[in-house]
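Hi, here's the filled form for the chain we discussed.

Project: internal
Contact: R.S.
Residues: 274
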Amino acid sequence: MKTMNTKKGNLFFLLIFTYAIIPVVIFGQSITPPQCYSGKRLLKEFIKEELVYPEKALQDKTEGVVEISFMVNKDGSTSNYRIVKSVSNDLDNEAIRICRKILWYPAVDLGRPVDYENKFEIKFDIKKYEKICRSRGYEKTEYPFLPIDTGNIVFQLVDIDIAPKPVYSGKDANFNSFIATNLEYPEAAFKQNVSGRVKLTFVVEPSSRISNIVVDKNLGGGCTEEAIRVIKLLRWNPGIIKNTAVRTWMCIEITFDIAKQSVAGSIPTPGQVH
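And the returned structure, exactly as it came back:
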């Protein structure tokens, strides 16, 4: 277990794309609409990180809001994607590409999951996109492994030929040292005497980034938020099936130990994942 790093890190969020869920009530007012796995804030961050403005649209200075309709089925799968409000073929296609990567909990009617028509918007704004490109450090996604699977299936870790692996830089030789270097014990957790584990499940994308973060085990005092912040710093070599990069479920655990004033992390192996 490593001694924690007390240097405070700053995380700057610049939300450049608007995101909205526009419920279409088809079963009555008792329905709870579908919810994305990661929540709205993290979803906005993912769109900011993943979206690539089509080159032709940039050259033509094409901007606007693309609105997409799709079904969130009662098993959580999605289908019947269609453009409700079009801007251009290039922007429409990019909006749908992003939308298909988002995972959803189904709508609930009187405690039972039901099929539900959902709507989703992405706003394309060239000036804001240029700012975020400067902030994130890239314009186009450079995939660490080609070819990539475009079917958007998310595979379980046990079904992968080669499991995703974090990419470390500098002195961080493993996940535990990365956590010790980059994660700070939240001040609120110290004041509240909070210790324990945070467990996160997420999708490792072929782009090397993560998406659809789910909090499996929460810890108060800002520990969960800090764990999410740090895990989003990592880039990954994607999971491989038949020499193709695929989307893969992964999970991590981060331990906060106030008695030792330390933090530690682990990545379960396929045999440990339940």
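Let me know if anything looks off before we file it.
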